[in-house]
Amino acid sequence: MAAAGAASAELVIGWCIFGLLLLAILAFCWIYVRKYQSQRESEVVSTITAIFSLAIALITSALLPVDIFLVSYMKNQNGTFKDWANANVSRQIEDTVLYGYYTLYSVILFCVFFWIPFVYFYYEEKDDDDTSKCTQIKTALKYTLGFAVICALLLLVGAFVPLNVPNNKNSTEWEKVKFLFEELGSSHGLAALSFSISSLTLIGMLAAITYTAYGMSALPLNLIKGTRSAAYERLENTEDIEEVEQHIQTIKSKSKDGRPLPARDKRALKQFEERLRTLKKRERHLEFIENSWWTKFCGALRPLKIIWGIFFILVALLFVISLFLSNLDKALHSAGIDSGFIIFGANLSNPLNMLLPLLQTVFPLDYILITIIIMYFIFTSMAGIRNIGIWFFWIRLYKIRRGRTRPQALLFLCMILLLIVLHTSYMIYSLAPQYVMYGSQNYLIETNVTSDNRKGNSTLFVPKRCDADAPEDQCTVTRTYLFLHKFWFFSAAYYFGNWAFLGVFLIGLVVSCCKGKKSVIEGVDEDSDISDDEPSVYSV
User: Fold this and answer.
1) Any transmembrane segments, and where (predicted)?
2) Does the pLDDT of residue 334 top 70, yes or no?
3) How buried is 278 (Cβ within 10 angstroms: 0-12 exposed, 13-18 middle, 19+ buried)?
4) What confidence tens digit (pLDDT) does each residue in 356-377 have?
5) Which of 61, 212, 273, 475 is the most buried if burial means most Cβ atoms within 10 Å?
């Protein structure tokens, strides 16, 4: 009873910590969205939608280490179940985590296919001054209906894709259809939800290849290199202003005697005057930044930024080397594309796969490492989106700027992060498959030991790390794994996506190394909608 009470108290403490984590996530999302949204175009509904979507993305990513912790916590290190972890309690814990995934994944589907598209199209229609609110809602619902149809199709396909083949090969068509419905009922809708989430994860994989891979190289190097000096940029800008004013004076001098300027000179004069307005606007922003307390504060934090940059590049190298060795292991030792390149053990050891078992001996270092990797994955994704912007093929739709991001761009940002977070779980599984499946669980196996004192053999039970060969009643599989590998063709696509991720990371690393320091007012000369009374202190 005492052991059960102590275990219950520890679980309560664990859930309290998780609750505090949720509050921290909500606070971070509010600060992040308010930091980037445009002060002139901020809307209450789009702001709430962005904060809620970003929070769902972070909470979903936080569920993976919780899932691994719970299945590991039910067993002792000697391979036996804890006194309180009987079959009913274990099933309750598994169901709780499974229902947590059901809830969060259903909310993600709702956000991606219903709420975010509706809010986006609503504000797109709001740009027309003559449009009434009723017309805006009708138009937004009309476009959102297309997304709802896609969601329904994904759920239907996932519900009736046969995961198992009927035993009787001579069964009739009606028996085959009946078998599909029985399979749907036995899975309680898991296959339908898994197919829909896997489809979104595939899109998230493309977003991770585009944004996260580049962000993993750009974020550390930008922190290490820093930005250019505001005083030096002001000096250069002043020289450019003097040069442009000279050109304008030269062109205007041609018309002093009353003669009209040729068309070519008029075009050149217009270009120089536009350039002069931009340079003077830069001058005002540079002057403000040079004299601001925020610039001095950032200058004092410069050594800390360098340390963070070095730490992030080390984490990136750990991640990339581990992912390369894991993919190489799949290429050499998996059953091939028909099995989705799935392997249940590690034939080639990678740094992360070796580090996690070592950290498991000291609670909770392994969970801290997994959490750091997940959060690093999310922050580098944010950095990649900020650096690249939001594109539709070769057309740039939106730029992400501190204090100047439009509501539609924030909605796009949050949707992309939702999709990337879905892919994060598979990336972690690729790095440490056995750990993600079973955590730190052990199970007991029989071994025959020959005794010197007595004739004959004696049976001894020794603990062994849980793997694919373990009995089902001895090792509990994480709920994350059930969602990851329902369909082999998605796993095969993720495998090839990992190679593309590594290639984009290397390209981004070369590009980031070759690029010079960023301007202290990056983007001011590109954004024509920035007013003179909206200083760019946020760009420091």
Assistant:
1) 12-33, 45-66, 99-123, 143-163, 190-214, 306-325, 367-397, 409-429, 487-511
2) yes
3) middle
4) 777 777 767 777 787 788 888 8
5) 212
